[in-house]
């Protein structure tokens, strides 16, 4: 479950953090408030193509960090689903680390279009 999303220098968003609780979340706001950039940030975390034009003007790079709880409850906040142990093992297998049941996924895009992704502290392709 995604518990926190941090966005820096992505489109109209200079810096923003959102914390999520179990259950349904709705993002609302006026035109131009950055809702599309929140969705763009989520897409970047999930591996979508990075576009240099999404980097905020006047900055060198945009970055998005997502904190995911993978141990200690499923998406409904209920008892452990059984898959969390497998996820933790997969993260550790690639050299990442699980900290207090959470994993950080990061993606950055520089103004020239090159992007980098990190899973639990390790660079991923």
Describe the model:
This protein has 125 residues and is α+β, with helices and mostly antiparallel strands. The protein is built from two helices and six strands. Strand 1 and strand 2 (13-19) form a beta hairpin. The chain starts with a strand and ends with a strand.
SSE topology sketch:
Elements: E1 2-10, E2 13-19, H1 35-45, E3 61-69, H2 83-93, E4 102-110, E5 115-119, E6 122-124
Antiparallel strand pairs: 1-2, 1-3, 3-4, 4-5, 5-6
Overview in brief:
With 125 residues, the chain is α+β, with helices and mostly antiparallel strands.
Question: What best-fitting shape do the alpha-carbon axes yield?
Answer: flat
Q: H/E series, N to C?
A: EEHEHEEE
Main beta sheet: 6 strands, antiparallel
Strand content: 25-35%
Strand order of the largest sheet: 2-1-3-4-5-6
Radius of gyration: 15 Å
What value does the average pLDDT take? 87
């Amino acid at each position: 479950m995604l518990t926190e999303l941090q966005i820096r220098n992505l489109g109209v968003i200079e810096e923003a953090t959102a914390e999520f609780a179990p259950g349904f979340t709705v993002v609302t706001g006026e035109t131009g408030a950055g809702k599309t950039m929140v969705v763009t940030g989520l897409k970047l975390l999930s591996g979508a193509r990075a576009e240099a034009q999404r980097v905020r003007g006047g900055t060198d790079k945009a970055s998005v960090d997502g904190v995911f709880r993978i141990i200690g409850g499923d998406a409904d906040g209920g008892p452990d689903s059984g898959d969390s142990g497998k996820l933790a093992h997969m993260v550790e297998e690639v050299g990442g680390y699980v900290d207090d049941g959470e994993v950080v996924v990061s993606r950055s895009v520089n103004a020239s279009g090159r992007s980098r992704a990190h899973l639990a502290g390790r660079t991923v392709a």
